[in-house]
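BUG: 3D viewer hangs when loading the predicted structure for this chain

Environment: internal workstation, default settings.
Expected: structure renders.
Actual: progress bar stalls at 90%.

Input used:
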Amino acid sequence: MIFLLLGVLALAIGGCVSVVWAERGGPRWVRAVALVTRTAGELLAGTRKKRGRTSNTADDGD
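Structure tokens produced before the viewer hung:
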């Protein structure tokens, strides 16, 4: 389990580094990794917003 968590942490750090490097004009593969990282972040943020709206409407009835 610890290796799985370390792997996820390494991917997250690598994604952040690629975004910064791409902003500074990195190679094409870094820009591709940065695009994937940003897209994944936006998708996760979108699901969090949807989940938050659902839980808020459920709490309104209490």
